[in-house]
Amino acid sequence: MPKDSGIGVASKRREDFRFLTGRGKYTDDVALQGQLYAVMVRSEVAHGKIKKIDTEAISEMPGVRAVFTGEDFSEVGGNPAGWLINSRDGTPMREPKRPVLAHGKVRHVGDAYAAVVAETLQQAKDAAEKLAESAVIEELPAIVDMAGAISDSENRVHDEIDDNLCFDWGWIEDNREVVDKALTSSPHVTTLQLVNNRLVPNAVEPRSSIGEYDPGTGEYKLTTTSQNPHLTRLLICAFVLGIPEHKLTVVAPDVGGGFGSKIYHYGEEALVLAAARKLGRPVRWTADRSESFLSDAHGRDHLTTIEVGSTMDGEILAIRTSTLANVGAYLSNFSTVTPTFLHGTLMAGPYKVPHVYVNLKAVFTNTAPVDAYRGAGRPEATYSLERAIDKLSRELNLDPIEVRKKNLLTPDQFPYTSPVGLIYDIGNYQNTLDKAIELADLKNFESRVKKSKSNGKLRGLGLSTWIEACGIAPSNLVGQLGARVGLYDAATVRVSATGTIQVMTGAHSHGQGHETAFAQLVASKLGVAEDAVEIVHGDTSKIPFGMGSYGSRSLAVCGSAMDRAVDKIIEKGKKIAAHMLEADEIDITFENGNFTVNGTDKSKSFGEVAFSAYVPHNYPLETLEPGLEETAFYDPNNFTYPAGAYLCEVEVDPDTGKVTICSFTCADDFGNVINPMIVDGQVHGGVAQGIGQALTEQTVYNEEGQLLTASYMDYTMPRADDLPFLKVDHSCQTPCTHNPLGVKGCGEAGAIGSPPAVVNAVVDALNRGGHAVTHIDMPLSPHRVWQAMQG
Amino acid sequence: MTTVKLSVNGKEMSAEVEGRTLLVDVLREKLGLTGTHVGCDTSQCGACTVHVDGKSMKSCSVLAIDVAGAEVTTIEGMANPDGSLSVIQAAFKEHHGLQCGFCTPGMVMTAAALLKENPVPTEGEVRAYLEGNICRCTGYHNIVKAILAASGQDVAAMAGE
Amino acid sequence: MYNFDFTRPSTIKEAVAAIGAGGQALSGGQTLIPTMKARLAMPETLVSLTGIQEMKGICTNDAGQICIGAATTHAEVAHEVAKSYPALSDLAGHIGDPAVRNRGTIGGSLANNDPSACYPSAVLGSGAIVKTNSREIAADDFFQGMFTTALEEGEIITEVKFPVPQKANYQKFVQPASRFALVGVFVAKFADGVRVAVTGASGEGVFRWTEAEVALSKDFSAATLDGMAAPSADGMISDLHGTGAYRAHLVKVMTARAVVAA
Q1: Do residues B111 and B64 share a domain?
Q2: Who contacts B66 (Cβ-Cβ below 8 Å, separation ≥6)?
Q3: Mean pLDDT to the nearest integer, A320-349
Q4: What is the pLDDT of residues A441-485, one digit of tens each?
Q5: Which domains does chain A have, with CATH numbers?
Q6: Has residue B107 been placed in a domain?
C-alpha cells in the first residue's frame, strides 16, 4: 500500500490554498499607514559623468518629501562582493565600491543616481521625471564589448581600473603546463568558440522593498523580495548603512520567484531604510518590469573557447577553456564566485578526464551587473563541455552516446577527485543515461526521423550528460578559497506544550514548497501528523540565522540542520520519557511517535512528553531544563553532486528555421527524494528556463550600451505553446553519502542540463538534413537557424 | 476625482479614481484585493487577469473609469461559496500547477475563461490560450495538466505519464 | 501615466465633437494604455469609444459585405465571422492573446496602423472599405506608412466593410517575444483576381505584393510561387528578430502556405 504521508510522498502543498485564493502576501501587497512612495531616477546613458543634479528644482513639487542622491550616501559603505578571487599572479581582484546611488559617474543604463520620495506614486514619478530632465550628465563612450574592454586603457568603467579587468583566474594554475602538453600530444583536438548568452532572470514578481523606522526604539524593518533575508541584513548592517544588526529586522514574505536575482542586496533596500529614517514614515518602492530588465542582476554572459583533446576513438585526454565573463558595471554579491568556483570546478563534468585547465577573465562593462542565475556557472560549464563533446563525436564520426559512455565515471570510481578540485562522493551515470534512453524510446527514433521528413521537417536528437555541485560547503574550505561568509545553515525546532511544532529555518521558499516538504521531513521523523508541523521562514526576528535559498542548497543544508535539531529534540525527549517511565534513558527507543522502554509495552507518546516538558510536574528538574526547543547549525563537509542525462528531440522547419521541441526527457539522480511532485516541478521549471536560454532568450545591448531587449515585447520569455509535456524521472538514486538525509539538490538541474541537449539536437537535425552546420550560438531563434542553413 | 461603482465578486463597491487610475490599481489599492498582481508594463505577463462582465481582461491595461458599472471577478471571488477551492483551483493544487504563486491568479482566471468557452480543450488549445500568461516557475507542464484535469480529462494519459 | 480628463460619449456625434475639441480617441486601449503608462503619450483628454453602441456589432449588407463596427472586439469578430469569413475570423482569433482580444478593437488597431499588426493585412488583402464619421476610404488609400493613415484630425473609424472572397487565408509567423507578426500574409482570391497583403515585414507598414498577385491571379497554386523571387529586401524591417532578407524570404514562404491553406 502506498504511503499517504511522510518521506517520498507527493503531499499536496499547503502553500497553495492561499495562493489560489488570492491570499498570498507579497511585499507589494503590504499596505502601511502613512506610507510614502520612492521612485528611482535611472541613467538613460550607459556611461556618464554626473555634472549636476538639481534637487532644488523638484523640492517644491506637489507631494515631494525627500530627494536623495549619491552624495547622501558618500559617507556610508558600499555593497561588497561576497567572494575574493585572486588572479593567476596572486594579486587580489579589483573591487570598486558599489554605492547605494551612483556618485560621480553613472555606469550602465538603469544605474540609479537619485531617488525621489513623495506622497503618491504618481507624484514621485512626476518629480523623478523632472529631476532627470534637469540633471546634467556628460556622456562618456560606452564600454560594452568584453574583448574591447580589456584592450582599452582609455575608456574605463571605473577610473581606477585601467584595463577594465576584475581578475584573471586560472584553475588550477599549477596544472596549466601539463594540460598544454596533453593537448599538444592528443591525437585529436576539438576546438569550439561559443557564447553563453546573457539572460534576464525575470521572476514574474518584480523586486519590491518597504522600509520602516521607529524613532521611539531605533528599530528598522525592511520588507523585501529576498531569497536571503539574513544575508541582506548582514550586508546592510555590516557594510552599507552601519545599522546595529539587532536593530534591523528583514522580512521576506511570499516572494514571487527568484532564480538567483533576489539573492543579492540591492541599493533600493538601503534607500527605503534611509528614507524611512529620515522621514519617520514607511517608504515603499516597487520595480516596474522595465526597471527589472535594467537593474536586476543578469545571468551568464560568457565568451568561451574550449579545446578537448581525445584519442581517435573518443577517449577524452585533456580539456582547456578560456573564457571572458561579463560582470557588468559593478560587482554584485555572488558575481565573482559564479564564473570561477561554480564554473571552473565543473569543467570535468561527469567524465574521467586526466587533465583540465580553466582560465577566466572577469570584465567590467557598462551593462547591468551579472550574477548567479539558476544554475550559476554550472550551466556555462556544462554547455561548453557538452557542446564540445558533441562536436568531437561528429568530427570523429562516432556516436555521441557511445562517446559519453566511454568517458563517464563508473560507480566503482567514487569517491572521485576531479582534476579541477572537487570530490564527487557518489553517482551512477550509466544508470541515468540508460534510463533516459529507455524513456525517450530511442529505439524508434529513426522511424520518427522518417515521419518528420515526410512532413517536410528535419528531426534531430541531442544528448547532454551533466553533473553539478550544489549546497556549496564546507565553510572552512570555501573560506580558504575566498568566501567572505559561511555556508552552513540553521534551524530551530520548537515543540509546544500541546505537541504541535514550529520549525524556524534559514531557507527561504519562493516557489520551492518548503512549507510542505520540510513539514514532511520533520513530521515523519517525529511520527506526528504533517498538519502538526508549521514551517517558519523569511523573518530574521523569528529565525536563529540562515544563508537563504539558492544554489540548490535548501534541503541538503537547511534540511540537514532541521534533521539535526530534531535529533536533539528526540534525545531530550528520551530523557524526559525515561523519567516518566521510570526507566533508564539508554533503554528508551523512539519510534512512530512513541518513546518506549525496550522490551516492554511501557511507552509515552510524543505529545505526552511535550506536555511534560512544559508542565514539568513529573520531570527531572534537577538534571534537565523544562521546555522542548532545540537549535542546530549544520555545515556540510562537501557539496552534493546530482547528475543526470537529458535527451531532446526537435523538429526544424527548413523553410523558416523554426525549432519545435518534440520531446524532452530527463533522467536525474537527486539521491533520496522527500516530495517527488515538488521535485518534478523543479525540473520542469529548470528545463523550461534552459529551453528558453537555448531557443528564445537573449539580452542585447547595442554599441551605445542601450538595452534593446528591455521588455517582453523584445525579450522572449518561453510560453506554454513553446514547450511540450516533459518526461521527468528521478528513480535512479544514489543517496548522498555525507548529509544525514542522503539528498542532493534538484532546483537547478533542469537549467544546467538542458541547453546543450537542445542545441545538440538542432545541430543534429540540420546535419541530417544535409546542412553541414557545426555550431549556432544561442538563442537558436528561427532567424539564426535559417541563417545557418543558408551557409 | 470621480466615483466609480463596480460590482466586484458580487459585492457593490465604489472608489474615488482619477482618469488614469487603472482597474488593477482600484482592486489592489482602493479595495485591498491584492490577489490580482502586476508583473509587467506591456500587458503581456497576464498576472493581472480578471474577468470584466464575464470576459478575461488584463486589468493593468483597462482604465477603471472606462469600465464603470461593470461586474468584475477577481481571484478572491473564484472559490466555492463555502470557501473551499473550486474545481479549477483544486486541480491546480492537485497537479502542482503553481510554485511561487505570483502568476497563479492570472492563470486561474484565464483557465476559467477558457473552460467557459471550450469545456473540453485539447492540450494544444490550452497552450495556445495561455499565450498571454507568463509563468517562470513551472515550465507550464503542470498548469496545462491542471487545466486539462479541471475539464475532466485523463491528464496522466495526455501527458504521457 | 500622466493624468487626463476622461469622457465616454454614447454616440458617434458626441465622440466626434469631443475629439474635434482636442481629445484623443481611446478604443480598446491595448496599445494606447501601455504607451501612456510608459509616459510616451500625454493626451489631455481621452475620449473612450467603448460606450458607443452604434459602433459595435457585425452584420452583412445588401452587397454581401461583412460590416464590422469599429468598436467591435477581436474576440467578437473571431466568433461572429467564423462561418461567413473564416480567414478573417482566424486572423482576429490570433491577435494578441485572449484577454487582449476581449478588449482590443478593429477600429483601434486600424487607426494605429502598427506595421506589425494583423488587421491591416486583412483590410488591405480583402480590399475592404474603412468608413469614418465623414467618408468611406478604400483600403488601398487608407494605409499610408508606419503608424500613418488617411485619417484626418478629429476623424474616427466607425465601421469596416469587408467584401468576402471566394477563398482566403492568413499566415502569421510571429515575432517570438511580442507575438505580433514578424511577417503576416493575407491572401484573398476574388472572382476578378487575387490580393496579397503583407504585414510585419516592411518599414512602410502593410503593403500588397503585386508580383504574387499577378501570378496567383493566373494560377492560384503554391507551385506558381516556386519560380518567383521573394520580394526585395530593400525597405524591409531589420531588427533583433530578423533581417530584411529573412523577412523577405518569409513573405514568400507564408504566401505559399496561405495559398495552400485557403
Answers
A1: no
A2: C6, C8, C26, C29, C48, C50
A3: 98
A4: 999 999 999 999 999 999 999 999 999 999 888 999 999 999 999
A5: 27-140+205-256+262-295 (3.90.1170.50), 302-472+638-789 (3.30.365.10), 488-634 (3.30.365.10)
A6: yes
Which domains, ranges and CATH numbers included, belong to chain C?
5-162 (3.30.465.10), 167-261 (3.30.390.50)
* B93 CA: distance to closest CA in chain A (Å): 6
What residue spans of A396-440 are helical by DSSP H?
Answer: 400-407, 429-439
Reported as a single tens digit per residue, the pLDDT across A105-114 is 999 999 999 9
Place of cell 561576497: A82
pLDDT reading at A2 higher than 60: no
Q: Which of B44, B76, B108 is the last residue of a domain?
A: B76
User: Nearest CA to CA, how far is A728 from chain B (Å)?
Assistant: 9
Q: What is the pLDDT of residue B161?
A: 81
Sequence-separated (6 or more) residues with CB below 8 Å from residue A315 = A406, A407
The whole-angstrom separation of Cα B30 and Cα B13 is 10
Instruction: Please report residues of B whose CB lies closer than 8 A to that of A29.
Output: 28, 34
Within 8 A by CB and 6+ apart from A738, the residues are A425, A636, A637, A638
**Cell numbers describing residue B107:** 492563470
* pLDDT confidence band for A1 (50 / 70 / 90): very low
Q: B107 and B71, same structural domain?
A: no
> pLDDT tens, C151-209?
999 999 999 999 999 999 999 999 999 999 999 999 999 999 999 999 999 999 999 99
Separation of alpha carbons B133 and A546, rounded Å: 34
| Sign, CA torsion A628/A633/A637/A642 | positive
Best to test chain B binding among A21, A226, A693 (most B CBs inside 10 Å):
A21
Cross-chain residue pair A712–B44, CB shorter than 8 Å: yes
**Which chain A residues are Cβ-neighbours of C246 within 8 angstroms?**
783, 786-787
Q: Which of C178, C241, C253 sits opposite A783 (nearest CB)?
A: C241
Q: Averaged over A357-366, what is the pLDDT?
A: 98
Three cell numbers, residue A483? 568566501
Binary contact (B102, A26; C-beta < 8 A) = yes
| Subunit contact B100:A206, Cβ cutoff 8 A | no
**How far apart are alpha carbons A280 and A212 in whole angstroms?**
8
Kindly state whether residue B25 falls inside one of the protein's structural domains. Answer: yes
d(CA A35, CA A284): 7
Q: Print the domain residue range for B147.
A: 87-155
DSSP letter assigned to residue A238: I
Predicted local distance difference test score (pLDDT) of residue A153: 78
Chain B residues close to C6, C-beta within 8 Å: 2, 19, 63, 65-66
pTM of structure: 0.97
Residue in B with minimal Cα distance to C101? B57
Same domain, B48 and B15: yes
> Which of 85-144 (C) contact B at CB < 8 A?
96-100, 102-103
Q: Which residues of C touch B57 (CB under 8 A)?
A: 99, 102-103
Query: What is d(CA C100, CA C111) in angstroms, rounded to the nearest whole number?
Result: 17
Residues constituting chain C = 262
CB-based contacts of A417-420 (< 8 A; 24+ apart in sequence): A418/A345, A418/A348, A418/A353, A418/A356, A419/A172, A419/A175, A419/A348, A419/A353, A419/A354, A419/A355, A419/A356, A420/A171, A420/A172, A420/A344, A420/A345, A420/A346, A420/A347, A420/A348, A420/A356, A420/A358
Burial of C63 (0-12, 13-18, 19+ CB in 10 A): exposed
Taking the Cβ of residue C46 and every Cβ of chain B, the question of whether any pair is shorter than 8 Å is answered with: yes
What average pLDDT is seen over chain A?
A: 97
What percentage of residues in chain A have a pLDDT greater than 70? Answer: 99
| Distance in angstroms (rounded) separating the CA atoms of residues A359 and B15 | 61
Is A21 in Cβ contact with B76 (below 8 Å)?
yes
